[in-house]
Amino acid sequence: MNIKTFSFTKWLLIFIVYFFTAIILILPIVTVFQEALANGVDGYLNALKDEDTISAFLLTIKVSAIAVPANTLFGFLAAFTVTRFNFPGKNTILTIIDSPFAVSPVISGLIFLLIFGKQGWMSDTLEQFDIQIVFNTPGLVIATMFITLPFVARELIPLMQSQGKEEEEASLLLGANFFQTLKRVILPNVKWGLLYGIILCNARAMGEFGAVSVLSGHIRGKTNTLPLQIEMLYNEYNSVGAFTAASLLVFLSFLTLFLKLLMEKNIQKK
Amino acid sequence: MSIEIKNIHKNFGSFEALSNVNINIEHGKLVALLGPSGSGKTTLLRIIAGLETPDSGEVIFHDNNNQSSKLSNGDVGFVFQHYALFRHMNIFENVAFGLKVRPKKIRPSNKEIEEKVNSLLKLVQLENFQKRYPSELSGGQRQRVALARALAIEPKFLLLDEPFGALDAKVRKELRTWLRRLHDEIHITSVFVTHDQEEALEVSDSIVILRSGKVEQIGSPDEVYNKPKTPFVFHFLGDVNLFHGRIQEGKAIVGNMDVDSQELTGISDTTAVAYVRPYDVEIVRTKDQGIPAEIQYIHSTGRNVRVELKRLDTGTLIESVLEQEVFREMNLLPGESVFLRIKKAKVYVDDFSI
Q: B84–A185: do the CB atoms touch at under 8 Å?
């Protein structure tokens, strides 16, 4: 390959990258705002004032605020346990952690419906304690946790495997206790992987549709998360309302990305 | 602090890593654990450090009053083979780590920590590297940081796992003389693991030779080198030629030559193998009591000359090492027929092969 064809190839590749980014990533986002503003800014603000949309927005944040930290903790513990100890059934655990990627979200929603629902095998116990999981916030949290379980663990396991446990052993031998080792050695070493895992987990948690749809029951203003609310408004031909709600989800994604950027800067400064 | 290793057994699954290991490590000594890979030397070191637990047996630590004492965190200085420096901390923070994590009551002040770290970095000749990160240092420099970090906590003893294994030959040599000098200065009981016999012979006060999880011989470098108890030790500590022969009337007969060996008195006639170092194989031109051989290759290795020969009676290959001067005087040539004489040999009755 001579220099000239190489240069042609280079520009062709750059063009392809731009083209697909524009069509697949940027265009849809622009469309969201275009549709949301179809009736002007007033129409957009009016749609924003819709009480059900506001409650869906708050519910989405609430569900993510529970599911993401829980999965972060679980993911870290699972990664640490799997990479640092040998125990029977380790490979089985590794496969099971991945299963939410393999199972369709709708099916996982149905599984939880069968366990916790009125006809489910735990219904008697739940009724006895007057706990309602299905068609209620706990059901949404459980479904979201199930779907987003692998993200943090999957980021951390290869990372911790490649780093090995020598630094931790060094820390312990130098007299540090477990919590000092965790704070000063383990967490700083995995912070990037952890951060990336949390961002992926959060994005998926806020956008989850299938599993949540089965367990939510679509009670307006009560068990509708943003993705469910968007679908409902769209099915009612309320295009401005649907895209306005969609714009909120876009804003949440931007916020996540912004937080990531901020943290990266902070860490670099240190 | 002296270390007593008693009846240690350790299995990994069905693999026997250590079996019935007994070693006494005296206070202030620098001891080498020497053996081929898979001999269990690193496992033994990790058991001494408390990083692994033995299946049975125990490691007992005696303080200077000969009282057995419990080991607590921060008593062991451990230098890892791949250094295990904290990658996100600079050199100063790495060395200061062990002091900074101490509970408030016994933690030195920041100023004291700084002084201590500075003096240690001076000791390992890295004063100006405080602000650097481990990834910005060479292998030899990282190794010295690891050593400074281990010494910062004033450990009761020092354990080093293949401390020079990952370094190039020149740095390796420099660092091991440096380690010996350092040990002579601070006199801390130290154990280091190595598979390099030259390193063990040159640096240590005492050598423990391990083979497949068992101790083959313990002794000073001079003892294990000159009085190897087993053929394995002889083989492992340097190049060796094997001469098969017979023992008759207290003398080993190899080819048409007698080899004296004190151990042989009282042993009845049997087959035996004489182990001979290359520099104990003399090349002569006179036929008197020599083994006939033909010179095949001649390699000059700087100060010495290595001559490869083929025995004309049995066809086995023999290696001889001569000094340059002797070689020049004799003017040996490839293809020439000469005679071999054994200057010194160690004769083992049991046949042994690797």
A: no
